[in-house]
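W.,

You were right to be curious about this one. When I first looked at the sequence I had no strong expectations either way, so I just let the prediction run and decided to look at it fresh. Below is the sequence, 261 residues in total, followed by the output.
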Amino acid sequence: MSTDVQGSVTEPAPPQTRRERQREATYDEITRTSRALLAEGAELSLRAVASRMGMTAPALYRYVASYQELVDLVAFEIDKAATARFAAAAEELPEDDYAGRLVASATEFRMWALGSPREFGMVFANPIAEAQCTRREMLTQVASGHLMTGQMRALWEHNHHPIPTLDELPPSVRETVVDPLIPAKVDDLAMEDRGLVWLYQQGWTTLYGVVALEVFGHMDPRVIESGDMFVHVVREFAPKLGLAGDVDRLEEMIRERIARS
């Protein structure tokens, strides 16, 4: 037995059975196989995954019952793996460089998306399937969202940049910050500080917007290659985070990461 942080006695998790270990290993193989197909530019389908794994399609159905369930499984695992990469980029900087860590992760997000466009599309351009899980579950469990909203919150708690009050928000927006459907830890965020959630949403819209346009080629390729539009939107958004005086350093950081890639 062990104790938790409150000192309560907790029972250890029971060891996995052989069947459970085998099932988990199969899910891991499904994910690896699907990602390999995506990287190769091949079709992703239940039949293709089963064939690559040496299974029959009916056998695969015991693990994923539909194409959408396959997509949801693979997207979740891709996001989790990519988030580790974004977090590692932040860890290159000191713990108290809150702005730098946020920008490092956001830039690494861009570089990952450009380098893995099919994986990016699966995670962030895949419609949410209401039949597979509730909308709340799907919208709130994204690992990359938890990382970056956590970084934005750490920055705000450090520099206390202005955030809108609830009275300043439109009624529909006010509802979303009081009961948010985004991947962010807000239960311990005071109601008078919930304007920060609106800033989270604005930040994601800005980041996703420019990266999606770059990934899907809806921008002059020379601008994509230079990273100038990405730098521009970061410089434009930075003052909302109280970073107007830090934009030159952040731009230098972004350009160094782009050159390194």
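Here's what jumped out at me. DSSP finds 13 helices and two strands in the chain. And, maybe more interesting for your project: The CA atoms of residues 139 and 182 lie 5 Å apart.

Coffee later to discuss?

I.
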